[in-house]
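Protein in question reproduced for absentees:

***
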Amino acid sequence: MDDLLYAQSRVTALGNAWCLTFIKGVDERSALLRMGAYPDTIAVAPDVQDRAVAMTLGKWALVIEPRGVAGGDHVLLEEVSRGTEALSVLRDDQATPRFTYALDGAVAVAFDPAYPAPELTWGTQPDMLAHLTRAIGLREPDGEDDETWRDAEAKALVLAQRLTNARVPADALTAPRLSAQLEPWFVGGVRPGDLLRARGPLPAGGRDLALTLLREQAAKLGIADAPGLSKTLSSGGPVRVESELGRQVRVWLAEPGTYGAFTTALRGVLDPDPDVALRAALRPLSPEERATYL
């Protein structure tokens, strides 16, 4: 079957939201763990539902997230690629599609397959795939009537399959596969959207102020005495999923409406950069509360 026709069939079968992440030179369990899988959820399952599944395709492991988007996060993918290489294809009808290729901890090239204009393509080597993308038909439109955006995700999948020499099998989600619940909170550190974008200078205090603000937030939520929290804030991060605090964070992550702002701030406050820590601690405050410090 033609590469594009086959990719179109896979895109249709996967639905309106999914992410495929290819990781070179690792086994299925390692691939899931690199992406933040809870170790106690890794098991062969015939019905994946909202779990990620992993399979071996030649020299690569493929992780499929049905209705998931974790692999499209460049911070996560950079961490996943350390010591090897990884690439992801994201489709989400509620957001922009994305192709990202990371080499040993850095994004080499990333772009929107529906509009892969050179000025919007980024990474350490933004031109490295140019010869392949144009051959596949991944290019910016030449005019208003040029519908190069059609089948963007399928073309991105063709690119991924040519780079890896690994074709997504037709029974990817119907055969029993090793699967797990992913939680990327534990992988890759702070995300840019976690931080306050302050126009002026940051207040004095740095990490000490960040810790004070986070402890105040924990007290308001009634979790200041949570197991492992005080010790981790004193010694620094990151939080390991199997640690005492890691087990508690899992509980909080299951209730994002209550604890989402706190867990986001916590990840940032544990960053080794004091400015990052402070921006993370200030982010969940109301404008009135921030005005006290800015």
